[in-house]
Amino acid sequence: MNKVVSGATEAIRDIPDGATLMLGGFGLCGIPENTIAALVQRNITGLTCISNNAGVDDFGLGLLLQKRQIKKMISSYVGENAEFERQLLSGELEVDLVPQGTLATRIHMRALGIPAFFTPAGVGTEVAEGKEERTFNGKRYLMEYALPADFAIVKAWKGDTMGNLVFRKATRNFSQAMAKAGDITIAEVEELVEPGMIDADDIHVPGVYVHRIFQGSGYEKRIEKKTVKLRES
C-alpha cells in the first residue's frame, strides 16, 4: 500500500482543534520540523501535546506555544522554554509533568495495548496525588495509565512508500514508541525510497503502524546547547 502524501499540509488535513498529539524527538533532535510548521500555519488550537520537552522559544513546539495553540502539555523536561514557563506560571497552560522513564513507558504501553502498569517512580511525591498505590514485595508502586493520542507525528531519517521507518542514533528517542502508539501515525522523512530498498533488519518501525508518510525538506537540525572546547595553543 502506498501511503505517500504530498507534504505536511496534506498529512495534517484532518487534525481538528482539540486533538491530542504525540510528537517525537528528544530536545531539538529528531523533531518533525515540517509538520510542526504546518500545524502553526493552519492555526489548529486547543491541542494537547505529548512530548518529552517543549522545544525552545522560537523553534519546535515553542512555535505552537507562541501562538497559544497548545492547551495542555504532557512532558518530562521543559526547562529550555521561557514562554512555556510564563504560560505555566500565569495559568494559561495546563501542564502534566511526568518522570521521563514513566512518560516513555506510558507511550510504550499504549503501543503494546497494555492499559496500565505499576512503577516506583514518584511514590511519596506530588506525582502520586490521586493515583492508586500498591505494595509488591514490600515496595510501594504507583499505577500509571497508558497514554492515548489521536495522532502520532514523528520524523525519521529514511522511509519507504509503505511506511517502513529507519531512525538515526538519538532521533529514535520517543519516536519509535510513539509511531506505534497513535491512532493515526504521520511520518516525515529525510529520504523516501521505494519498497525493498530498506533491508528488513534495519527497519525500526514497520509500515503497518504508519498511515501517512512524506519527504520533508529544509531541515535546520538546530543544536539545543552547543558546547565547544578552545583549541590548545
Automatic annotation (TrEMBL):
Keywords tagged on the record: Transferase
The UniProt record lists the keyword Acetylation: no
GO molecular function: CoA-transferase activity
Organism superkingdom: Bacteria
SUPFAM superfamilies: NagB/RpiA/CoA transferase-like
UniProt xrefs under SMART domains: CoA_trans
Gene3D superfamilies: Glutaconate Coenzyme A-transferase
Family label: Belongs to the 3-oxoacid CoA-transferase subunit A family.
NCBIfam families, alphabetized: pcaI_scoA_fam
Protein name according to UniProt: CoA transferase subunit A
